[in-house]
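Intended use. Records such as the Phenylacetic acid degradation bifunctional protein PaaZ entry shown here are meant for training and evaluating sequence-to-structure methods. They are not intended to support clinical decisions.
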Amino acid sequence: MSRLLESYAAGRWYAASAEGHPLLDAATGEEVARISSAGLDLGEMVHHARTVGGPAIRELTFHERALLLKDLATHLTGLKDELYELSLATGATRRDSAIDIDGGFGTVFSYSSKGRRELPNDTVVCDGDLEQLGRTGVFLGQHVYTSRPGVAVQVNAFNFPVWGMLEKLAPAFIAGLPSIVKPASQTAYLTELVVRRIVESGILPEGSLQLLSGSAGDLLDHLTVQDSVAFTGSAHTAGILRQHPSVLHGGVQLQVEADSLNCSVLGPDVAAGDPEWDLFVKGVVTEMTAKAGQKCTAIRRVIVPAALADEVTEAIAARLASTVVGHPGDESTRMGPLASLGQRDEVRKAVEALRSSCDVVVEEHDVDGSGRGAFMSPVLLRARTGAVEPHDVEPFGPVSTVMSYDTLDEAVTLAARGKGSLVGSVVTHDPAVARRLVLGLAPWHGRILVLDRDDAPESTGHGSPLPMLVHGGPGRAGGGEELGGVRGVLHHMQRSAIQASPDMLTAITGRWTRGSQRTATPEHPFRHSLATLRIGDTIASEPRVISLEDIDHFADFTGDTFYAHTDPEAAAANPLFGGIVAHGYLIVSMAAGLFVDPAPGPVLANFGVDHLRFLTPVKAGDSIRVTLTVKQITPRSSADYGEVRWDALVVNGDDEPVATYDVLTLVAKHDNQQA
């Protein structure tokens, strides 16, 4: 008997009390492992996550969590060969394994980078601008995101045993949530190996990751209002989860990413011989054969102009004819087997259902005479007029159906009949066609690839989910949204509207709020390193008069001779100015001259300006002065410096705001690092 997969629960590895269900090698039919969760205390797992894992993660800032993910991805990358070897048993070729394994590691690296670049080195995130709730500015509103004290349960599909886990784990971990991972049984042995190596590394805090090998049993019964479930799998199972009492009445958040009938649309501007023609045909075949078509993003419906339908079908069929199906370990193999014999049976049933309204162009042929492997060669169908089944039946394997349209509106209608998809693609070199199709398809898709000769060299293809873009889709695709960069993190957090005074908001958010107290330091704030700089430290400059000579010189020096700065008569006729006014960038430049300390010091560099607005024109003879206040301090965990965001307010002689903006600087962590 093969090895029984273990669960990692409450800080220890657990072997079930039953023999378990056999898991077979997709290519040979030999037993790889057995799986069971019999006897596992699922309530203890949830309790451990809440009381041990969650608090340990939430003690860390977003940057500290992100750095742990970087360490984790680096560690796992060094173990890639071991994972590739075991991945063969799932039916994955080396190319398929790269999608799953390297794709998973890349997603973790991406979230680590985004967490450090786009989130504060804190545990609270401000969302949007302040809302002034009263007349005088002493009562304000600020939306914030905070971590929930809950558990993220992640139920994953069989087709991506590595990426499927890591793409959910990474954003949940940065959001402050511990994860309980429940992989699909067919390929759980690969997920278990990854989790085992993660646990052995000791990189993540104990309790932040647990593994459930086998049935989920009554797991959802132990979840409450602060918990969430992210499910990837069939629409049927998703429907059962939606009816669970914990979801219906207990406040548990359920996110679903389900199977969908994704499509690719060929624009009517494309002809045989065009670069887009080859891109389209190659893209369809790639999506049919990568992971043996077992991808939730694979192209199931091929929508082409009626005049080109025969030619496109022939081109796809010809390319499929050269696809070598065989053992995933063979270098010549282009497509391996499906994940299991049961999965192959399901795909064959779907093909039979499609035959009722489609003609088979490329038939399945025998690949493995032994019958032990779950091999299935690609199948291409051609939909008859009025076919219904291709829009309702999904064959989760190497199967696609070609259908034709006469007008762009008809193409959009055909795509919409899929009732919502994860991803669609449009292949065209005509911008007008692209706009028409994309705007028609967008309400029905979570992501749309517009592919042509220009972006093809860098395109990742129709089906590749990218960590910086939302992965999910409306309707039958589940309605969920995974990934999406920081959006994927914030999805796990609670957004709250905080109503308070400026001083209270500064204390709560860790970011200076306009109207709250400032601290005038004895020496210039630019003389302070991060070790001594504080939120609210400020400098108020002396006034400076903007003369007509200053305006003329700036216009000559920069070449900005816009009439409002150079033509008195035209400027006087402008209702916004009523005469010559200073350039906005002259104001900003002179404001810098009023607050900059020129000597070398802890301030290492200015790397940008955010939210610049010019509010009141400055005429020749007016004066300006600036108040600069430390708004936010973000140490970089992996560097000897950090980012300081300064609030800049420029006013005129009547104390009217002239310009507002944030100045961004890099500042040394300690005084002895002064330049």
